[in-house]
Amino acid sequence: MAANTNTAWIAALQVSRSTDDGKTFKPLGVIAKGPRDLNAGCLLELPTTTTAAGNATTGKRASPTILAAYEDNEITANGTYVMFRLVVARSEDGGKTWTDPKTVVQRSATPLPLQVYGPFLRIAEDGKTIQMTYSDMLSATNQQISRVTSLDFSETWTQPTNLRLHPDNARMRDGSNSIVSVGERLVMAVDVQTDTSMRLDYVISGDDGRSWGGRGTVFDPGSNNTAISGQMVRIGSYLAVVFLTNKDIGPIDPNAVPAPSGDPAGVGYANRVVFSDGIVRDGRLRWTETPLELWPVDSEWTGAVQLSDKSIMALSCRDFAAYGKIVSMT
Questions:
Q1: What are the residues whose beta carbons fall under 8 Å from the beta carbon of 314, sequence distance 6 or more?
Q2: Which of 43, 93, 147, 255 is spaced 20 to 30 A from 65 at the CA atom?
């Protein structure tokens, strides 16, 4: 799990490991550290049949090669953003040490603070192309998901492609995303903000992510409520989306520590999960209407990892500590 800690803008993006089913996490390595805004780490273990440079190997590596995509934003001491960046670094020893950080996307914060954030990494169906999707703020009312790819295991990256999940005039802001494969399709879960709601949507691709359609809703908390930070994984043929919401929450702990920098996903959010059977009916997926609560109020951010065909580990943070919980299908 990659998590952020920062004090007076001396931030560290840290990898932690659990050996007791998420009850505790211990530090393993530091991806990046410095007087910058470091956030939204996404880890991807590369196939064991290739090296980091993409050359064939004669056997399994002693330690997996892992890529980490993350936000590495330049910021002043008073909290003013100067430059937004998405960076990918590499570990050849299973996450203990990190090297070769490469800036994949960057944008000046002036004259308008149009962010790039929320990177997600996956390997394409060819088994070698790395895809990184991220939220791309094009204007104050239009935020799309863009994608870059690498054919040499993060040595070089393509220019961004706008996936256009919605019309440019729709006044929608697509935020953090995650993608899983279901048969011959891909399904993306994405946070979306409109003039009237902050909910979780999904879209479907039949061509390995080159084009997307069939947009629908994963979970809508209704007016005056919020659903954010959705992370989707598979459980066998089923889909699970772990997310944060302030709908129908209990009392707020007055001693809880808010998320840093006034991030919206802090005190006042519960961590929950909804499921889909993964079957497309009339172009749509169906999701459970009543979420399962994983952690009550005062959760910060989410994560999810597939453990087997029958279980996942859902992740949450509170007071800068990571917590995991096994969710199983019977």
A1: 242, 271, 273, 294, 302, 303, 304, 324, 325, 326, 327
A2: 147
Q: Please count the other Cβ atoms lying within 10 Å of the Cβ belonging to residue 112.
A: 11
pLDDT range class, residue 90, cuts 50, 70, 90: very high
For the chain, what is the mean pLDDT? 88
Q: Which helix (H) or strand (E) holds 137?
A: strand 130-137
CA distance 275 to 232: 9
pLDDT > 70 fraction of the chain, expressed in percent and rounded: 88
- Encoding tokens for residue 292? 């399962």
Cα separation, 136 vs 147, whole angstroms: 9
pLDDT of residue 61 exceeding 80, the answer is: no
- In degrees, rounded to 5, the angle at the alpha carbon of residue 313 between the alpha carbons of residues 69 and 222 is 85
CA distance 307 to 22: 12
Domains with residue ranges and CATH for the chain:
1-117 (no CATH), 163-330 (2.120.10.10)
What does the pLDDT average to over 237-255?
A: 81
User: Would you call 262 helix, strand, or coil by DSSP?
Assistant: helix
Q: What is the pLDDT of residue 52?
A: 46
Q: Residues 6 or more apart from 253 whose CB is under 8 A from it?
A: 267, 297, 298
Answering whether pTM is above 0.90, one says no
In three-state secondary structure terms, 261 is helix
Q: What is the pLDDT of residue 107?
A: 97
